[in-house]
Amino acid sequence: MKDNIRVALIQPKPYPSFDDPRNLGHALLLIEKCRGEDLDLVVFPEYFPYHGDKEIANAARQLKAYVVVGLVETEGGKTYNTATLFDRSGRLLGRQRKNNVGSLERNDLGISPGDGSFRVFTADFGKIGMPVCVDLWGQPEAAKELTDQGADLLVNISIFPILRGHSKAGALVRAFDNFMPVVGINTADYNALINGRRIHQHGGHSFVLQPPKMLDKHDFRKWIRSLDVIDDWIRAELDELEQIQMVEVNLSTARRFRREFWERFGFRRT
What we know:
- The chain is built from 8 helices and 15 strands.
- By secondary structure, the protein is an alpha/beta fold.
- The strands form 3 sheets. Strands 1, 2, 3, 4, 5, 6 and 15 form a 7-stranded mixed sheet that branches. Strands 7-8-9-10-13-14 form a 6-stranded mixed sheet, covered by helices on one side.
- The longest helix has 15 residues, at 164-178.
- The protein is globular and about 55 Å long.
- The chain starts with a strand and ends in a 5-residue tail after the last helix.
């Protein structure tokens, strides 16, 4: 496991239709721009690039990094919205299906909800949970379950016809409750085309949230005695344009001090 990992936040501007095949080519071009950055993890938003397992796997292998993408999965006559993870060798490590599926997705995209379960996936730097969109910031269960399964990092891929502004506030609450680093990734601002209707996607403001880096118990106790707001947990936040930003994410502080943090507040966690 690593104490710190290097993460690429890729905030793309998609073509209007979610399933436009050009989105895959655009994703591959953006991954190519990450070459030489010595990355551990690359993250894309929800529904991007929509399809392309084989191509993304090959790109992950060439980059030698873990890659999270928003892909649609079809199984048993049903279609699911997933966060899909490939490892450094290009192997499919796993998929997390979205469980709280809104009316737009159900009625216009034919997306079915997952079975309600959440699971962590083991990388060489630690364990990753990947709750999709509102599954993280809308309700507390996913973050709690994944933390209890030993997650070191939560990756939250999203897209926002509504509630972009609330998502960071909700994610901050989950980060606090679970003393957990969170990477949230959105598209750039654009107008999507869904069943012939143009629907504005409130883009940008992808973020990294994490507890402040602390080296020892003296640091922790000094920090917690002065704790008021947690604005300093916002490690990075992008603007509304297409961009790539490399961010160092610290995993060791949360691992080391999570239980002491819970104990201080009387959180009854196993």
